[in-house]
Amino acid sequence: MSRLVLFILAVVFISQEEWEAQSMPQFHMKDQYGQSYSDSSVKGKPVVLMGCYLRDLELCRKQGRKLYWKMQNLLWKDSSKVHFLLYLDFQETNKLVENYLEESKTKQYESILLDRKGHLTVGLNKGESYLRIFNKSGKLISSSYQEEMDENLIQEIYGILKKEI
């Protein structure tokens, strides 16, 4: 009898865990260079998705750049097996920002997705980046808010990605 109860509890726990696993939000947007990205185009590989409000552009760019380049070194040959996507809530922009964006097209900046329709704004906090990691199937496996990108966090992300590759 106790084995049956344990079995039922295990099935309920596993089912609940799968049921609670969040899927990657649906999105379709372009980066500053006009390249299109969508949730369906990045599935099949682990996805590191980091986002910020427009006012936190420098924070997000600094953290995203540090994370991206550290992961390129740590993952080395496997770095192409992971999608790294940085996005900005770009619903409320102005002429000055649009001009800056146009001028930056000639520079070799990392790609930043411009969320003009608010596909990924749910969960964003002022003054922090919203970091999420999704597995190959598009299920959420890690979620956190960051004010800075330190070495401990980078090692933690590396460990998560290494298991998913």
Describe this structure in words.
The protein is an alpha/beta fold. The chain contains five helices and seven strands, in the order H-E-E-H-E-H-E-H-E-E-E-H. 40% of the residues lie in helices and 22% in strands. Strands 2-1-5-4-3-6-7 form a seven-stranded mixed β-sheet. It is globular.
What features would you highlight for this structure?
alpha/beta; Thioredoxin-like_sf; 165 residues; seven-stranded mixed β-sheet; globular
Radius of gyration equals 18 Å
The assembly state of the depicted protein chains is single chain
Number of strands: 7
Structural class: alpha/beta
Helix content: 40-55%
The main sheet orders its strands as: 2-1-5-4-3-6-7
How would you summarize what this structure contains?
This protein is α/β, with parallel strands linked by helices and 165 residues long. It has helices at 2-20, 39-42, 57-75, 95-104, 151-164, and strands at residues 28-31, 36-38, 47-53, 83-89, 113-115, 129-134, 140-146.
